[in-house]
Structure to design on (162 residues):
């Protein structure tokens, strides 16, 4: 059965050890986490965890059931096939020689990114968008020489009804 990428989001109690138990559930059962993001929500004492993993549908269903059994987990949702907004952020340090500085700035403009740091031989670029946008930007910057990259992984929210 084909493994698809799944974005699983959950609301959890914001308490020590909760993230460790969630991650332990994945690791203990041999599920890989491709990305992980955690932050507090507007509700005091509640955090949102967003995990991206590759698995087939029965395995994702098993993951959801096991997550729901954890005491500090409030709600679990697989946002893969629902109407949701997904974004990722990255900081990209790219070599910026005098020959390619103008080209990098054109690419930054086209992709609606932002240069957040400038050095004699580098730019640090901030980009936000879906995975496709980040992949396309990286493919254009790669020939120029990417020195470092930091990515958040996916964050997602289900769309509200109209």
């Amino acid at each position: 059965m084909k493994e698809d990428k799944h974005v699983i989001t959950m609301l959890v109690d914001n308490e020590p050890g909760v993230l460790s138990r969630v991650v332990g559930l994945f690791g203990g059962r041999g599920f890989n986490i491709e990305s992980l993001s955690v932050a507090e929500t507007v509700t005091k004492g509640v955090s949102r965890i967003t995990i991206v993993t590759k698995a087939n549908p029965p395995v994702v269903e098993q993951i959801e059931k096991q997550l729901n059994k954890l005491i500090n987990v409030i709600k679990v949702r697989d946002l893969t096939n629902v109407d949701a907004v997904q974004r990722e952020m990255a900081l990209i340090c790219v070599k910026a020689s005098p020959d390619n500085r103008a080209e990098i700035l054109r690419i930054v403009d086209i992709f609606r990114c932002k240069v957040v740091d400038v050095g004699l031989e580098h730019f640090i670029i901030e980009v936000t968008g879906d995975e496709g946008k980040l992949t396309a930007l990286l493919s254009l910057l790669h020939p120029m020489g990417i020195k470092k990259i930091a990515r958040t992984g996916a964050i997602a929210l289900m769309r509200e009804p109209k």
Summary: The chain is about 30% helix and 40% strand. The longest strand covers residues 84-95.
